[in-house]
Amino acid sequence: MQAIQLFDRGDFDAVLVSPSPAVKLVDNAPGKYKVLFFPDDEVAKMLGVENMYLIFVAHKDWLEANPGLAPKLLATMNDVQAYIDGNPDEAQAILAPKTTITGGMGSGGASMEPLMFEKMYRDGFFGRKIRWLGIPVAEVKEQLKNEFELYKDVGMIEKIPDDGIFWNE
Q1: Can you give the pTM of this predicted structure?
Q2: b/e per residue, 35-57, with b = 16+ CB within 10 A?
Q3: 43 Cβ neighbours under 8 A, 6+ residues apart
Q4: Which of 28, 68, 86, 125 could disulfide-link to 119, CB 3.0 to 4.6 Å?
């Protein structure tokens, strides 16, 4: 049995979950559950920054073999966010279907329920929205290095990576 089911059943008093199960719990039983905190907000406070970021990782040899694609990926992320902002109903329709793979190609879609789109992208969940923004590493490099320090301090990583891990194009 999953932790979320044990929590819902009452076996646990609290549980750490990703946003999707939290949205469903709060929506399905208003007033029964309380969101205590968002861990990424707490880490951001520890680091003295406003936001935490997800990081795209690619193989160096692929980047070298495909010059110019890294900036295009960043631009695409910004285009995606602009599309979501300007066309929420259409974006929701694109993300709703389940992705199928045919001949090695994905059909698109993310199996995203309307509630998830509403809470994670359109209206927000406790004042939070997912934003797809392509930000060049140069703009967040120092923040990432501070995160690495924190991860090392708490034993998540053994050593702090050198600047060679950052792709500059």
Answers
A1: 0.72
A2: eeebeeeeebeeeeeeebbeeee
A3: 52, 147, 150
A4: 125
